[in-house]
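Appendix C reproduces, verbatim, an entry submitted by the partner laboratory led by Prof. M.T., so that reviewers can inspect both the input and the predicted structure.
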Amino acid sequence: MIGALRLGSGGEPAVELLAVRRQRTDSVPRVVLLSVQAAVILLPMIRPTGPGNSSPVDLAIAAAIAAFLLWAGWSGVKLRAPYWGAWSLLIAGAAIGALAGGRPVPALLDIAQDLVLMLWVLALVNICRYPDVFRVVVRTWAVAAPVWAAVLVVAYFGHIDAVSGVTARLGVRAGMLFADPNMAANYWSMSAMVVAATKYPARRSLRVLAYIALALSIVFSGSNGGAFYLALATFIVIIGWGYRRFGMQGAIGLACVGILMGGAALNLVQPQKIQAWAVASNVPLLRDSFGRADQSLGQRTQLVNETLALLDQGGIWGLGPNTTIDNLRGRQQANFVHEAHDDYIEALVERGLIGFAGIFLLVGSVVVRARSVSARPLAPGYSEALPNRVPLIAALLGFAASATFYQVLHFRHGWALLGLLAALHLWGYRPAGEVARR
C-alpha cells in the first residue's frame, strides 16, 4: 500500500511504502543481513562477466534485494526511497533519449542497471534503520576490502595473474576481479576512507596493515585517477582534523598550507621531468602510471571535445544510453572513439537535459545529506559504528570528482556508499530531546 508523500530534509521527496501502524519486527532477520553482507563482501567480483554485463556480485545483490523485499513485505515496515527523484529523471532521460535517437534497444541494459542499483540502495537504506545492522554492514566493508587488497598484493608478488588481474592488454596494471584497474583503484580509495570512518579493525596495528594493503593495491593498479582520489580524500580528512582540533581558523590554515606546499612541490620536483624519468625507467609500473599521465590527459580532453560535439546531433533529448561509441564512429572528425569517461557529460549527451537534471539533483541530494550528517550529532549506536564522519564525506567528494574522468554511475560500491549516507541521514540522528539535554 502506498503511503503519503513526505518532503524529506534531503532536498527531495521521500516516498513511504508499505505503511502499516504496527511493525512485526525490531530488526532484520539474520538471512537478510547475511545476504547484504555477502553482497558487500563480493563488491570487487565484477569478473567473470555474464549476459548483459552481469557479474558474480550482481547475483549476490539480487539475492540481497529478494531477501529484503520478502522481509519488508512480511514485516510491514515503512520503506524510504532516497534519491528517487534523481533516479526518475535519469531513467526518464535514458528512455526518452533512446526513443528520440531511434535506438531503444541499447538503452534497455542501462535502464535495467539503474533499476537494480535503485533497489540495492533501497535495501541498504531500509535495513540500516537499525544501528546494529548499520554497524555490521560498515564493518563488513571495512574488513572485506583490506582482505581483498591483501589477496591482490600476494597475487601480484606471486605473479598469479588470474587473481591479480594483470593482462597483456593492460601491461602490469592490476585490476583484480574488477572490470578494469581504474575501477579497482576507485574501490580501494573509497574503502580506505571507510576504514578511517569506522576506525575498524579496532586494533590500530591491524588498521595500519589495512591501509598498507589498500595503498599497495592502488599503486599496483597504476591508476592516476585512483591516486588522485586518495590524495584528495586524505587532504579533506586532514582539514577535518584541523577543524575538530583548532576550529575553522585551523582548518583554513591547514588548507592554505597544504595548497602552498603542493604548489611549491610541483615547482620544485617538476612533474614533466618525473614523467620523463618514469617513461625512460625500466619499471613497467611507473611507465604505465606516471609515464602515461600526459597521454591519458590528452586522450580524455580529446574525447570530451568529441563527445560534446555530439550535443548538436542529440539535441535536448539526447542520443540514448550506450550510443556514444557508435555515434563517434559515424563522425569523420572523431579521432579517438571511446566512451565519454565523464558521467556529467555523458548524462547530457546520452540522456539529454532530463538526464542531466537527474545528475544535478543527485549531486545536490548527496551534498545536502552529507552536510547534514557532518553537522548533527548521531544516535549512540550510529556514532559507535561511525566515530569519524569526515572520511565518509571525503569518500563522497572523491567519488564525485572521479565522475569527471571515469564513468562511475554504475559502480556498485559507489551506490553502496550513497545508500549508507542516506541511511545515516534518515535514521542516525539523536532524538531532539536528547540533543536538548546535552
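Strands lie at 2-7, 13-17, 79-81. Additional entries are available on request from the coordinating office.
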